[in-house]
Design a protein that fits this description.
- Helices cover 38% and strands 30% of the residues.
- With 221 residues, it is an alpha+beta fold.
- Helix 6 (163-174) crosses helix 8 and helix 7 packs across helix 8 (197-218).
- The relative contact order is 0.17.
- The model has no long low-confidence stretch (mean pLDDT 86).
Length: 221
């Protein structure tokens, strides 16, 4: 079973209007699609967490033709949750169809970033993942960020870790480095990785920084 992480570069003409809002306005970094319900026929429901101030965002949302109804729940850190039901715009249907086809499992969240990319992860047989890439519509350029054998520990912990950093974290957990009190040392981690203790310590430091940055950027849930 394989997984595939992608960054889909969309031209403004085919980008969702509220994603374009994030791209064009300072103070907005990413909108994360957390969950969705497609059982509502032509008006599916979506739950987002948006990094940014809801006050300028809401008028643009209200003027978006495809949006039928929405609710906003503000967070204390200039972010907010957004529940929205909308009719899927015509130009978005082929894109959604490519990554929701039978045989493919999409992992949440899907990130709509300020650089205009949509970042998403799919899991399934290799041929299904390739089909999703092949069926991405015109006006969208697919960049493969990561591909490999599916490992939930790796994806949940933070996919920004390098393979070597992930190996270091696994070794540290296995030897009891993170137990209280600690049952392992960086020397033990280095021995398992066949590297110097200083190298092991640096790998762990970088891995921990990446994971903590991801936790903070995801926001409160």
């Amino acid at each position: 079973m394989r997984y595939l992480r992608l960054a889909v570069h969309q031209e403004p003409a085919v980008r969702h209007p509220m994603h374009q809002f994030v791209v064009e306005h300072e103070g907005y970094t990413v909108s994360r699609l957390l969950q969705y319900n497609i059982a509502l026929d032509d008006e599916p429901a979506f739950l987002f967490h948006v990094d940014g101030d809801p006050e300028p965002y809401e008028p643009a949302l209200r003027e978006t033709e495809s949006v039928r109804t929405y609710e906003i729940s503000e967070c204390p850190d200039d972010t907010f949750y957004l529940y929205v039901r909308e009719a899927i715009p015509e130009h978005s249907r082929d894109f959604i169809g490519a990554f929701t086809q039978p045989g493919l499992v999409g992992l949440m969240p899907v990130e709509y970033r300020e650089d205009g990319t949509v970042r998403l992860t799919g899991v399934g047989p290799a041929e299904m993942l390739q089909a999703a890439v092949d069926e991405t519509p015109e006006g969208m350029d697919v960049e493969v960020l990561e591909v490999g054998e599916y490992d939930a520990r790796r994806l949940d912990a933070g996919s920004d870790l390098t393979d070597r950093q992930f190996e270091a974290v696994v070794a540290a957990v296995d030897c009891g480095y993170y137990e209280t009190p600690s049952e392992g040392t960086v020397e033990d981690v280095g021995e398992r990785l066949d590297c110097a203790p200083g190298t092991a310590a640096e790998l762990l430091r970088r891995a921990e920084r990446s994971v903590m940055q991801n936790v903070v950027s995801t926001g409160p849930f």
